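[audit] Reproducing an earlier prediction to check determinism. Same input, same settings, fresh worker. If the tokens differ from the archived copy the diff job will pick it up downstream; this log only records the rerun itself.
[audit] input (131 residues):
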Amino acid sequence: MELNGGCLCGRIRFNVTSEPRVHYCHCDMCRRATGSAFAVLAWVPSPDLTWIDATPAYRRSSPIAQRGFCPACGSPLSLAYDVSPGEIALHVGTFDDPARLEPRYNYGSGQRLGWVCCGVDLPHRETEERW
């Protein structure tokens, strides 16, 4: 499998060579970082991700994680937890063909907004972090 994607302005492109593990994330941190009701994240082993032409800028989004973004257009691109350096999440909306990446579970379900109804039939996993 090979998947490609990039930021809104096209400055940063990426290539992924493995099947991502995709989920909805309802945690406070993802909501604030994306400016949306939830994030849809595609997790891949770090060695299976190649940044093309340019690499993201990074900022610490919490005491446990950092996020990558395009410094030119501001597109959020990635999430990486300090305790899991071998994997990285990419925002599904940044893939060229996001329709191929269907979420399989929910994360942070206890923080789901009451009016969010997508994925309610999928398995749920909790988080203890709140930001």
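[audit] rerun output stored. Observation attached for the diff report: The mean pLDDT is 92.
[audit] end
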